[in-house]
Design goal:
Elements: E1 5-10, H1 13-23, E2 28-30, E3 37-41, E4 47-52, H2 53-60, E5 77-80, H3 84-93, E6 103-105, E7 110-116, E8 122-128
Parallel strand pairs: 1-4, 5-8
Antiparallel strand pairs: 2-3, 3-4, 6-7, 7-8
């Protein structure tokens, strides 16, 4: 077995598609606006995919349930970038809102910044740093 992708189950597919494709600049390898599934290249053989959550909930039998609210994150999408500060500036210029500003996490050995996609999925951008 091998991991194919991390699939985010989203309510507003087009908003999320635009965010990952236009704001973060990830190349769509499958799917397009107005559809229900798309995958994006993230430097691995597969990557991140998004899928309409209503269709998945029908498949697994919990359509009547809603997304969890007011919960601590259960996952974080981690994306490595060449330079966190440069990426932060570029994405801020595209209107991306960040949770925090770039910071060195000495014990982690990296510089990080955090943001959320249109459906509040936590994303960490990081690059390695040396003192």
């Amino acid at each position: 077995m091998k991991l194919n992708s991390v699939r985010l189950l989203v309510k507003n597919f087009d908003d999320c598609y635009r965010f990952y494709n236009e704001k973060l600049g990830l190349k769509a390898t499958f799917g397009k606006l107005g559809e229900v599934y798309a995958s994006f290249e993230i430097g691995l053989s597969s990557g991140i995919s998004i899928f309409n959550s209503d269709l998945m909930s029908q498949a697994i039998g919990n359509f009547e349930k809603d997304f969890p609210q007011d919960k601590r994150e259960k996952f974080c999408i981690e994306i490595v970038v060449d330079n966190v500060d440069k990426t932060y500036a570029e994405l801020s210029g595209k209107g991306v809102t960040f949770i925090n500003k770039p910071v060195n996490m000495k014990d982690w050995g990296m510089r990080v910044v955090h943001l959320r996609d249109p459906e509040d999925n936590l994303i960490e951008l990081f690059s390695n740093f040396t003192e």
